[in-house]
Amino acid sequence: MKTLALIGNPNCGKTTLFNQLTGTTAHVGNWPGVTVEEKDGLWRGHKVVDLPGIYSLSPYSPEEKLSRRFILDQKPDIVVDVIDATNLERSLYLTSQLSELARPMILVLNMQDLLEKEGIKLDEKQLSQMFGTPVVSISASKGIGLDGFTKVAEKLLADPHAPSCPIFAPPVETCITRLIEDDYLHTIPVGYPPRWCAIKLLERDELFRTHMPPVPERLHKVLDRERTELEKVFNDDIEAIIIDQRYHVAERVSKACQIKLKSEDRFTLDTILTNRILAIPLFILIMAGVFFLSIGIVGGATVPLFEKGILVLRQSLTTWFAQLGVLPFLSHMLVDGIIAGCGSVLSFVPQLIVLFALLSILEDCGYMARIAFIMDRMMRDLGLSGKSIIPLVIGTGCSVPAIMSSRTIEHPKMRRLTIAVTPFIPCSAKLPIFSLMITYFFNNAWYMAPLMYFTGILAIMLTGILAQALDTHKENNAFIMELPRYQVPTLKNTAIQTWDRTKGFLLKAGTTILLASVVIWLLQTYSFSFMEVEAEKSMLSQIGKFIAPIFKPLGFGKWQLSVALLTGIAAKESIVSTLSVTMQGQPFSLLLTPASALSYMLFILLASPCIASLSAMASELEDRKLFFLTILWQTGLAYIVSLVVYTIAKGVF
Amino acid sequence: MENTKTLAKLDVGQSGTIGAINAPKEIKRRLMDMGFTRGIKVSVVKRAPMGDPIEVSLRGYHLCLRNEQAENLVLR
Hints:
The structure holds two protein chains of two kinds.
Chain A: E1 3-8, H1 14-22, E2 27-29, E3 38-43, E4 46-50, H2 62-74, E5 78-84, H3 88-99, E6 105-110, H4 112-117, E7 120-122, H5 124-131, E8 135-137, H6 146-158, H7 170-180, H8 194-202, H9 207-210, H10 217-234, H11 238-257, E9 258-260, H12 270-273, H13 279-324, H14 328-346, H15 349-365, H16 367-380, H17 389-394, H18 399-405, H19 412-421, H20 431-441, H21 448-470, E10 480-482, H22 491-525, H23 539-551, H24 559-570, H25 574-583, H26 594-606, H27 611-621, H28 624-652
Parallel strand pairs in A: 1-4, 1-5, 5-6, 6-8
Antiparallel strand pairs in A: 2-3, 3-4, 7-9
Helix pairs in contact in A: 3-11, 5-11, 7-8, 7-10, 13-14, 13-15, 14-22, 15-22, 18-27, 20-26, 21-26, 22-27, 23-24, 24-25, 26-28
Chain B: E1 15-21, H1 25-33, E2 41-47, E3 54-58, E4 61-65, H2 67-72, E5 73-75
Antiparallel strand pairs in B: 1-2, 1-5, 2-3, 3-4
């Protein structure tokens, strides 16, 4: 089995090609020690690896390090350099670096269809000659040119040869030649190409401090002399000189290979979408549309259907099990525990499918980058990035997909802060509690629901400002982001992405939720001596009575309220049902006053989220300590806010 | 430094040629990797609704960067 590594700039269509090549066999995996996600799959009996998108092979980001190490250490049989043909010059900058790694390489010119639209033709033959590699033109999204790729790849596998390296300006070349002849270069491990090593030595690459035999003092002196000389000739620092040389190569090749047929000003959607006045209103409108379509229309139609379906299922299963003579314990656990618990979560799947599909369309077409662009200034002061706005909006539906969508934020610190604040946005499962309380205690006041959202936003701002103030390692958070061309999303890609995310959600529902449902049911049904008892005497009520004193200062010290909070950990929807069951028709005014009701609402709004969100948070934060700190902060803030508000409100109401 | 012409000082629609990059090592590398090298022409396409970040076009593609980074790009 041979290995093919797909590499290229972000957004050049690597993953589209990967999905085309591997079909449905693609699965997600992790490489040891690296948190950056990469995928591998099978193509014609060979392994295909989809490496993260990068602009350069300089070891400044984890993705770059990973890609470089992968090519040097894993030695893929073919490096497939995927090039966005509409962006040839910048793509060739990476190609010039890849060619120095001396692995057999194929240049794949992707987005052939877009290229024709822009009136550009590329001279494949010329390009192939200049880099000494096979070149193939494809359109991954339309599935055009894949046969050509197969032919070229099979031929190169049968007769592998390294590409030719780009030639730099004479002073640099002379210097590289001198270095290659040095004795030290003969001691480096086999597989590290001498020319590449010479360039990296010049650039003071960290590789020579960590992975290579120690550089002798004599060579250090030679290197210093060479650097000083070059820096004098070019009047710049050595790193800049090499980058400059590489871009000169890219310019030269691209000029020789690009034939512009016609050039016309294209109308771009950006005239409207990032318009100074219209941009933000349009963004709100588009997001509201996504929200309304998935949660409003689809969710509104399917959730009641699912609830009815689950009720019917539970009833008929109970009768059926009774007829079969199944043990009541098993029958109850399955019907009242697992089906009731998992069912309430699964009823969200239809709206999530629509939400995921719409989001994948937004991502595919290029609008997400524009949102980040227009919102960056606002989010910056909170220590967040423009991209953080997306999870926050999705969070109004459900925190789970919101937390998962934060993956698109590259900067780890910003990504983690975004994950930590996302649950402050009230999700749709919290709305029933609010509407119950508002109806019962606040006479349906119109301002109460917006007040909850506003409090959530305030909590996000407070967290952001606090995290900024406590951050001792302030980094230079440069925000440099490519704004890709708009594209029409393909059905196939949307389907793949939607299914991928839905599958992840289903897996979580099948594991975490399943377990939690069983546990809550057991606690609700049995006493500590494992006797089947009424809810009043169950373990759950005992636990409720045990915790209740903690919430007494907040105004809700009754055990029913504490138990409801506990069941809320499994799913926030169950708070309302738990309250109804435990009160058995008695008025809520026995439990709460308007002041304590407000305090109860605020606590539910801010305290740590349901188990599904918690597990999403844990896996996306990738840091146990940070995870517990986040829960502590959310719950602690909820406690303090409720305490303060209750103390004040007691006097007012 | 007040009078240095930088990319941040250009109006929308104007363009300039990069002369030097006065940024910390890592950001300089990042900017150069994205194609900001000496002698390359960059034009300002748009400013975000709040004036920052800015969208620029170079080497036939578009990217956006904060004013802070645009200040680092000195024009000829």
